[in-house]
Amino acid sequence: MVNATNKNQETALHIATRYTQGKAVLALLEAGADPHLMDKHLETSLHIAAWDGQNGLLDLLCRFSHFLDIQNSDGDSALHIAAIRGHLECLESLLENGAQVDLQNQ
User: Fold this and answer.
1) pTM to 2 decimals?
2) Domain containing 87 — which CATH number?
3) At which residues are the ANK repeats (predicted)?
């Protein structure tokens, strides 16, 4: 049930990330929430954290994520989004955690 989705295919993890609820994000991840699940725009919680410049949450999500380079419906990875939005700390965190620097936007 921790990975149940709403009509927009958002999980509780997507929503907790969007509203910067760090304790909830950690609790969901520890309960088995899948950080790789995508909403209707093919965005993961990493995309949301990168968009909002939530570096602390992004670091936490990276610890539970094996795939940092998932591309959304626009072809953007979390790294692309952090760069577009000018979130330097998020860029650094993603790179330190192994995001691909040569991934092309599709």
Assistant:
1) 0.95
2) 1.25.40.20
3) 8-40, 74-106
Query: 3-state SS of the chain: helix, strand, coil percent to 5?
Result: 50, 0, 50
17 within a domain of the structure (yes/no): yes
Q: What is the chain's mean pLDDT, rounded?
A: 97
> How many CB atoms are closer than 10 A to CB 29?
20
Q: What is the DSSP letter of 27?
A: H
Q: Which domain holds residue 40?
A: 12-96
Reported as a single tens digit per residue, the pLDDT across 60-102 is 999 999 999 999 999 999 999 999 999 999 999 999 999 999 9
Number of folded domains in the chain? 1
Q: Which amino acid makes up residue 15?
A: I
